[in-house]
Amino acid sequence: MSHGECSEFSIVLLASPEEGSSSTGCIPQASRLQSLPADSEIILVADHADLTEPRRTPLDVSPNGSHHLLEVPSANRATLLNAGMHAAQREWVLFVADPGFSAADQCRAVSRFLSGQGARAPHCLRCFLPGTSGTREEAAPTGDAARSRWPGAVELSPEQGSPATALVTSVNQLVVHRAAAVDSGLSFDGRLLPAFVDAVFAAFCGLCLPSTADLRWIGISAERGVSPARSSLAGCEATELLASLEVGCAGLAHAANTGGQGLPLWVQQVVLWQLHETIRQLLDGQRTLHLDSPDDRRALVAAFSRILRTVDASVIRDFTWRGVRALDRTAWLNLAGRAEPRPPLLTVDRYDPVQRTIRLRYSFCGAPPFEAFFIDDRDTIPAFAKTETHELLGHAYAAQRSVWLRVEDDSQRLTAQVGDDAAMLRVRTGEPVPGLALSDARTRLAALPPATPDTNSEAALLRRQSCRPWLRKYLDQAWLFVDRDDCADDNAEHLYRYVRRVRPDINAFFVLRRDSADWRRLKAEGFRLLPFGSRLHQLAFLSARHLVSSHADHYLYHPVATRHFQDVLKVQFTFLQHGVTQSNLSRWLNEKPIRCFITCSVPEHAAIAGNATPYAFGAREVHLTGFPRHDALLGLAHLRERSLLIMPTWRQWAVGASGQGGHRRRPNPHFGETRFARVWKAFLHSVELRRSASRYGYRIRFVPHPNLEPYLSWFEIPHDVEVFQIGRGTSVQLVLGRAALLLTDYSSIAFEMALLKRPVVYFQFDDSQVFGGKHTTLPGHFDFVRDGFGPVCETETATLAALERYFAADGRSEPMYRDRMEAAIAFRDGRNCERVLKAIQNTAEPSVHEAVSPSILIEYARQATRTEHWRLALSRWERVAALDPGLVPPDTKGHLSSARVRARLE
Length: 906
Description:
Number of helices: 34
Shape: globular
Strand content: 15-25%
């Protein structure tokens, strides 16, 4: 960047926690400041609780004396941003409110854009959005050139209608003319929660302009991290959220509609985006807010309804911002009191050429509607069906229905009825039609998506290498097994060992980092190892038939940029799970490309695969088989020793951020300041714990979660506590087999003890945070008090007392907990690996589930009776009566007789 190019900019930079705090002052990260244009004015704004008035001091890192630290007393986000804007001295103010964001390229592009505006430039407030392509060296072109080179980031005025991709939701996207902002009285609203501040300020920028044509969007490359602000609502009160909704959504809508002409499209989109972000967080973590009062919940739902009524139904139907699903739009229409589209629309979006089935999906609110599918006018019962349901603050939100129909003949024609109407059908995003030729649907769905052109040289090289004959032969139809990238000894390792023993014809490989402590062990055992992240690993993935993993992280099932290889990828992902799913992981798992989902517990299987659950997976994907590693663990039960195993899980707010391409995380310098760290350290150092264990002859063993291992030195573990580190030569199976008693907080490792029928104590001192949206988990079907395998304790005193009781009882559980352990584990026969292998193979077997599932047939017969479609009810109950006598419900004869009578009267 040439000198002086950005001299007209003041850059307001909010200090990140490690740069400043109320107790330590401000210690700027030099790398952040150095990435900013040297000839601009930089104002680093920090909160300082000990001050009574703002304090401004020069920063020594400034080469020209124009960098300053501005400390503001006990400030919220809005106050910090306002202080920075009013302290600025240059003509244009650019905000950098997210740690790690670099503004250098944005300044360059903005400067070049403004230089071409002439005298008109000083009178504009402008918003600059990330683009999806283009060159960082220049601002986006306008008009047709922009649409061709910068799709999704063209220069566009609100009068022309801004696409959803052009929403301004973060101050990182704003460049404000300082004098114009001051003259217009613009400021960040301190009444708003942090999650609302940015988008509302940006919207009022547009409303305060003399003409909306003066608010423009130009593209800046997204590669430098410009992203929407997603501040958490955690910890706020219901009254605070209601106030923010009134000011930030209802108030914005009122201000934009002063002429009574309705809301501009772009304002409606801002309102929808703000509601979407709020509702998304409530769906993800409904205990995040203090919303125990039913009145508060009702008031919030009423506020959502009232605000949604200010948005046109057509805008809701067309809103496609990132993360917005069809069921969200259906829910919003319902909350707004708008009728759902008639006739109903069903989307045919997937085809399984092996099992010859197609998937149809639609969303609805309220009671499940009547549905019927006709192939060449023949009533066709789905091979698989699943209803995915969601609640918002205790109220029904929306449901999504997925059905898989078996199709045999390309000449067939598909029609459908949902509710009282004949449905329209479309293939993916195609045009809706009343009837669909299956030959057309199968052709369009079976076609592999085109690959993104190989402009990436690495992708082009990888594609060329994958075509080498010897590699194709070596990796042909590969099965790739992987636990974590950096360690093994989980379900994938145990299943791989079984597959190599009973099916040596399967071209199986195990993927692991070469520097893992498990590499040498598995190599000595004869495992066919592929170094994780290596070229050979990537090439194997391109040729793979199956990817089998105990984890569902993106870097594991997408080890290459799949957009470059969509025309060749045929891999199917089997999720073995790392532990029993006891919490609600639906929002995380539903978007994963899981073809085979392995479960271990009967209640767990029902919570995932059953109808009316928040999971998108059903009987087609989910299999109750037991975990592969449990086969080996049962064989270690005889090793039981008098030992207490302490295994707390991790906390997202305590450990560092996740690094790209693996499980390893960046260290959090403030780990020791968290309550989680302090409580567990105090417990490990408890004199009473060690005295009690010694009295009864118990050894204490501590196994930290892998995400806690970087902080082991901070815990200063006492010398009489044995430490075992996963992935560093420690066999977790062996440690569990030797344990007589487990102490954990929320870890599903308790199910391993249930398998061995050994007692568990839960130490849960922070459940409101863990299940309140701050961690990665939400309350699910498993209630620790109702379903757990031991007492749930909230204090160290209660935990120590519970452990003392088990020490004295020689590690024997109470009958109530033993009964729960017995019921929790589906299989203890040592054949889990056999069942899992069969489940994976069934995904590639065309003959599986040829007959209609009796449960689905009975469901559709009852549905027809309930909705009084008597002719269909009669034919369906006749098919039910023809089932095996043991499967026929007792009320079948009555339903059949009633349907015959009513059908004659139609």
